[in-house]
Write a structure and sequence with these properties.
By secondary structure, the protein is mainly alpha-helical. The chain is about 45% helix and about 5% strand.
Length: about 260
């Protein structure tokens, strides 16, 4: 029954790149627990021709702007960097608007680029971002909880069946096609989950919940769509987390205020 303060850095459709930038931006702040759950939306970055892909995801409309502004974070003792960052923002925004055809759009992927998603180039970027997050957590002494990502695609899945609410989902919120072709998204998420498992093996001090396996069961009760959970599914998700967190807490490995 202790009071808990939660700082939510997550946001809709973002990736490990966003998490790294946000976590790095807090400076000397430390946390009793850092929770990382990402790897599905990241698959969207693969829907691009090989020659346009960039490891920092700047081939993506969103990251072209984010990556241009991120280096200036925290430099508030002198206004000139902010002036430059403002012009950098405008330059990147103008470039994106004028030459949209060279970027992954911020909304649904380009249909003509979907087949490129079979090459999981995001794996190297995901691994680099995750390792940087792990390094930051170790430097700051933050406990870190990593979790594999749960994805459910019924055998009879099709976009038409999804739109008609004929599948084993509750609300049918977002089709998997918003991230890419179904088999490509599933493959990319599996590859990202493998990276998470390998990182945990290298760092036994990291807490781990294998949500990819633990969330399977009755999909009609658990999943609203391929990657989002129902209320029942969310309760199950949290229970899986607590089964890892509470034993660690009871072993007095956290420094909590009395």
């Amino acid at each position: 029954h202790r009071k808990v303060r939660i700082h939510n850095f997550g946001n809709l459709a973002q990736s490990s790149r966003d998490s790294l930038i946000k976590y790095a931006s807090v400076g000397e702040a430390s946390f009793d627990l850092v929770v990382f759950y990402q790897g599905a939306c990241e698959a969207r970055a693969n829907n691009v021709p090989p020659e346009l892909f960039r490891e920092d995801y700047s081939h993506y409309g969103w990251y072209k702007i984010v990556c241009g502004l991120a280096p200036y974070h925290g430099r508030n003792s002198f206004t000139l960097p902010y002036t430059f960052s403002f012009f950098s923002f405008l330059d990147n925004r103008i470039r994106y608007v004028i030459n949209k055809s060279s970027y992954v759009p911020q909304c649904d992927p380009r249909e003509e680029w979907l087949h490129y998603g079979s090459n999981y180039r995001s794996v190297a970027s995901f691994e680099s971002n995750l390792n940087a997050i792990v390094d930051l957590s170790l430097q700051r002494g933050d406990r870190l909880l990593l979790m594999t990502v749960a994805v459910h695609i019924p055998e009879n899945y099709s976009l038409e069946a999804f739109k008609k609410h004929l599948l084993s989902y509750s609300r049918h919120r977002y089709p998997i096609e918003s991230l890419g072709e179904p088999e490509n998204v599933v493959g990319a998420v599996a590859a990202h989950n493998n990276i998470i498992s390998h990182v945990v093996m290298k760092h036994p001090e990291i807490l781990f919940a294998d949500q990819a396996n633990l969330m399977m069961g009755n999909p009609a009760l658990t999943f609203d769509d391929p990657v989002h959970f129902t209320s029942h599914g969310s309760e199950k998700f949290v229970k899986n987390m607590l089964e890892v967190i509470l034993p660690d807490l009871n072993n007095n490995r956290w420094e909590l205020e009395s």
